[in-house]
Amino acid sequence: MDPSPDEAAAQIEAQEEGGRRVLRASGRIDTEAAARLWPEAMKAAAGAPFAALELSGLKGIDSAGAVLLLTAAPDAEFRGATEQAAAVLERTRRALGTAPPVSAPTRWRPITAIGHATVERARTAVAGIAFMGEAVVTTLRVLTRPRLLRWSEVLRHLDEVGTRAFPLTLLLGFLIGVILAYQSSIPLRRFGAEVFVPNLVGISLLRELGPLLAGVVLAGRTGSAFAAELGTMTVNEEVDALKIMGVDATAMLVLPRLVAATLAMPVLALLMNVAGLAGMTLIMGTLGYPWASVQNQLQQWLSLQDLFGGLFKAACFGLVIAGIGCRAGLSAGRGPRAVGDAATAAVVGGIVAIVAMDGVFAVLFFRLGI
């Protein structure tokens, strides 16, 4: 038989008994009643702590009502509670006792933040230097023991880094040549010097833009792939398994990628140069300059020194991009975002590194008169 409304009406009342405070609860304290009685209960709990919970008039209680009573009187003893009500209260008390405390929001301290960032950058730099040292030591060991280098892996990575990147490199180089020819012809036309467009485009491509753009393609296409592949192996603990089995992970996983990228990058840069010159020649033809005129300007102003200097920079770019990609993959974390973060770090780090290196090479070549 359902209780009458008067019996089921939930009430709480703070009383004094023998110098001790007692919180009396009656009726059915469910979720709706707990929401209604919460302000009153918190107001009553603001004084001295309750010594006991008088529950003889309690008709029913759920977890929300138990949270209300235990929040108002957390250390009080139960009096007059039925077996079912006491079980609910005890179970809720244990759950509240094991719940983690809510941490207070930390204040932003700029000096502390700068210190943490500096320490993290220093640790990353030290780890990068250690990775470079390990790669150099492994390379020296492979020179004395060539069988440690897996040439099948080198050929596989040469196909991934070089052969499969040929279409993208040719397309990008052709478009860059077209854009450079059009944009450089606009200001030169004012002085009647459109004939010097091949000089400008050729020198820019061979010395700077060819290797740099090929490096950007390598960083975005291959550096991220290296980081994702090695990052997945790191997350799946395959790299740790290789180390436990006594296999040199650097010689097996890193060195073939470094060799492949270093060998493929000059080829990609050369293709970028050829495609760019082809695009420039096409635009010069539309402007009324025959191939013989373009060829004459290129032969007069370009030299093998320009070509070899660009190819040397391209080889250095390939080595650095592959190293950054492998380092990002091997240092990946263990979370669900680890592989994505590693790929992002490889692309960003590779592009920044080759741009910085290109600036260093520009200053160096200028000082050496190359």
Automatic annotation (TrEMBL):
- Looking at the record, the residues that make up the STAS domain are 10-96
**Name used for this protein in its record:** ABC transporter permease
Work out whether the entry's keyword set contains Transmembrane helix.
yes
> Keywords on this record?
Membrane, Transmembrane, Transmembrane helix
List membrane-spanning regions.
Answer: 164-182, 267-291, 311-330, 342-366
Keyword tRNA-binding annotated:
no
Tell me where on the tree of life, at the top rank, the source sits: Bacteria
Q: Which organism is it from?
A: Roseomonas alba
Pfam families documented for this protein: MlaE
